From TrEMBL:
Residues 109-210 form the T2SS protein K first SAM-like domain. GO terms for biological process: protein secretion. It comes from Sulfuricaulis limicola. Pfam families: T2SSK_1st. Its main location: membrane. Gene3D superfamilies: EpsJ-like, GSPII I/J protein-like. It is found in: Cell inner membrane. Belongs to the GSP K family. This is Type II secretion system protein K. InterPro entries: GspK, GspK_central_sf, Pilin-like, T2SSK_SAM-like_1st.
Length: 334
């Protein structure tokens, strides 16, 4: 009788080997998938932990700002200037698992956009100051008209301004706010303004919930020049005399200042509104937090008017005008 050949046995061994390799491949793929899934879950858990830590530290930094401003109000009730403790930056401070840094800016050392309309009517001294500020930053001063139209309650467009009828004709239609600015980011919604322009203005303008006086003790030279736009050369002398203790002190040291309130925008030496900037870094989680604080009488009088948290700020090189690329206003409550 003939003996069976070895071919079927070889084929069986080959199939067994292939099957074993497939099983190993499937097991390896499953293990890799589970490992990747575990890494993603671990990273998400770490991010949540870092975020929670950052928020706790951020709240602590805000309390630091309120405490130091409250102490200043008690120790220096008559005036506010850049030699006081609140004006000193909080350098990067190591905390468990990360670090935090903070700055306090006097918001009244900047031009308040909402000063352009006082008592429901355009304010000529403030308009002149803002036009000068725009021109000094190589921005078309005629854009002032569009800013006024954005604030005032009527629907009548100024000569170089814009109202509902203009905004509704855009590719993405919307209406003029017809109310005070909530944030300077809102400028990007005003016809003619670009992100690049807002970046230029960022350190010189602010948006406060009511018209305010400019604190000459804390204002930048460009803001002082805008304040004294009929004769900006006086700004240098005004800056040299700071810090001032009172308006009478300003007048005594600068007798050449205009005395007519219709010639120069309101100014003073005290501030109520402060912008706080806090940077937190925990692991891969880095955020910049900005807040607007209103200082009242005593620690109980402090209010955080808005709080905004965002990625680290990077100025834009250029951007299309808001007419083509409208964006929502940033800096709302969170």
């Amino acid at each position: 009788m003939a003996r069976p050949t070895a071919a079927p046995v070889s084929r069986q061994r080959g199939l067994a080997l292939i099957t074993a390799m497939l099983v190993v491949a499937i097991a390896a793929a499953t293990a890799a998938y589970l490992s990747l899934d575990q890494q993603i879950w671990s990273r998400q858990a770490q991010n949540l932990t870092d975020r929670a830590q950052a928020e706790v530290v951020r709240d602590g930094a805000l309390e630091w700002a309120i405490t130091i401003l409250a102490k200043d109000a008690k120790d220096n009730p008559e005036s506010d200037n850049l030699t006081e403790d609140w004006a000193k930056d909080l350098p990067p401070l190591a905390v468990e698992g990360g670090q935090v840094a903070g700055k306090i800016h006097d918001a009244q050392g900047r031009f308040n956009l909402n000063n352009l309309v006082r008592g429901g009517k355009p304010s000529p001294p403030d308009i002149g100051a803002f036009r000068y500020l725009l021109q000094s930053l190589s921005i078309d001063p005629n854009l002032t008209d569009a800013v006024i139209d954005w604030i005032d309650a009527d629907s009548n467009a100024s000569a170089a301004g814009a109202e509902d009828i203009d905004y509704l004709q855009m590719q993405t239609p919307y209406r003029a706010a017809n109310q005070p600015f909530q944030s300077i980011e809102e400028l990007r919604l005003v016809r003619g303004f670009t992100r690049e322009m807002v970046d230029k203005l960022r350190n010189f303008v602010t948006a406060l919930p009511q018209p305010t006086a400019i604190n000459v003790n804390t204002a930048d030279k460009k803001v002082l020049e805008a304040l004294l736009y009929p004769s900006p050369i006086m700004a240098e002398n005004l800056a040299k005399g700071a810090p001032y203790k009172s308006i009478a002190d300003i007048r005594a040291k600068n007798p050449q200042l205009p005395s007519d309130p219709n010639t120069i925008a309101p100014y003073g030496v005290q501030s109520t509104y402060y912008e706080v900037e806090i940077t937190t870094l925990f692991g891969r989680y880095q955020r910049n937090t900005e807040a607007l604080i209103q200082r009242g009488a005593g620690s109980a009088g402090f209010r955080i008017l808005w709080l905004s948290q965002r990625l680290p700020y990077r100025p834009a090189a250029s951007e299309p005008s808001s007419a083509e690329n409208p964006v929502p206003a940033a800096g709302g409550n969170i």
